[in-house]
Amino acid sequence: MNQLPRIVLTGIGLTCPLGNDLPTYREALLAGKSGVSLFPVRNMGEQPAGVCDFDQTKYQKRKEIRVGTRAGSIAIYCANEAILSAGLNLDETDSSRIGIYLGITEHGNVETETEVCQLFDHYNEEVKYWTHHHNPRTVANNPAGEITVNLGLTGPHYTIGAACAAGNAGIIQGVQQLRLGECDFALAGGVSESIRAYGIFAGFKSQGALAAHEDPGKASRPFDKDRNGIVVSEGGCIYILERLDDAQKRGAEIIAEVAGYRINSDGTDYVLPNPERQEECMRQALANANMCPEDIDLVSTHATSTPQGDEQECKAVRNVFGESGNTLVNNTKSFIGHSMGAAGAIELAGNIPSFKDGIAHATINVDNLDPACALPGLVTGKPVQKSGGIKVILNNSFGMLGINSVLILKKFDA
């Protein structure tokens, strides 16, 4: 039986509420700095949110920004930054062999809501004033497609709608397509424009799952006894993935290697998580990587700061990793909130530097740990230097309608 090609990461491009490049982002994580602030939401006033502040005109003309979507601009920024990070020269690369696989929860909602409001408030519902850009903005392939237009790429592109498991799912899709030989380079990850769509805030509010706190920097508080909901955030993270042999031939710097993965479904509820299926997903990802729980140095949790969601994931993590405490556990949403379709990819990026420095960043805002969320190895308050270093990371990312994704990365060893 032929061995599957090894897949490695050679570039990272991101924008998140803590910065627009990995060193800035990582520095803020290690410093315990929150990226959550107050943001004005239509019909709801100011809400805690994770806001990105990147230069849209760095890779787009203003007219292109007006025609496209916020999600598309985030995707274009991250893709260009990832290509620079990987040292990839597009003039010397066959563009038909570059695939784009982006995880999303939503896109085009921002522009659609704005158009609807304008039509009702200013144009007496006269349809002739409806924008002719609506359809390309809202088709399912939009953010990935905007990248191809911006960069002139002619390979395959599509989005992976996987709710809040989508960031991992985009990377997994890139791995699979590389192994199938459908592309030579995969731009893979996830993007989200969530904070600019008031329907998302309203939906969580009506569900009783929207975070509230007098200090926005403390609103996202996974595992804390007083947690009360999700902080909605925007952002994106795109990786350059390659087959190991190809990366070595071009002399690329290898950031990490994909060791294993798994996507499964709860099959039980629209919203409520199923810890048994989450546990199963982690165990199957470990089997795919030919690893056991003791091989994992760091678990990056999905925990969104909802009362039931955090408790259920902690139950699943305890069942898999036991009570030894050898495996460290942390959470990044406590810093930046929940970036939906981008969450898995952004949170993974924040932990990747631990392969070099051996440090697990903390989970902040855990002032009163919920006993139901107590985990051996949970890093709170301050970062922890792991004895022996961090060689393997397991990244959890779960979503509505019971979709679960687990991705395992390992430190590259030739």
| Topology order in helix (H) and strand (E) letters | EHEEHHEHHHEHEHEEHEHEHEHHHEEEE
Helix amount, in percent? Answer: 25-40%
Poorly predicted tracts of residues: none
Tell me the β content: 15-25%
Structural class: alpha/beta
Number of strands: 15
Distance between the termini: 22 Å
> Into how many domains do the coordinates divide?
2
- What is the CATH topology classification name of the largest domain? Peroxisomal Thiolase, Chain A, domain 1
**CATH homolog superfamily of the largest domain:** Thiolase/Chalcone synthase
* Global Rg: 20 Å
Sketch the major β-sheet: 10 strands, mixed
> From the 3D coordinates, which CATH architecture of the largest domain would you assign?
3-Layer(aba) Sandwich
* Average predicted local confidence, pLDDT: 95
CATH top level label of the largest domain? Alpha Beta
What count of helical segments does DSSP give?
Answer: 14
Strand numbers in spatial order across the main sheet: 5-4-6-8-1-9-15-14-10-11
Principal-axes shape call: globular
Give an account of the 3D structure:
This protein is of the alpha/beta class and 414 residues long. The protein has 2 domains: 7-249, Thiolase/Chalcone synthase (Peroxisomal Thiolase, Chain A, domain 1), CATH 3.40.47; 261-410, Peroxisomal Thiolase, Chain A, domain 1, CATH 3.40.47.10. Helix content is 33%, strand content 21%. The chain has 14 helices and 15 strands. It has a 10-stranded mixed sheet with strand order 5-4-6-8-1-9-15-14-10-11, sandwiched between helices. A hairpin with a 3-residue loop joins strand 2 and strand 3. The mean pLDDT is 95.
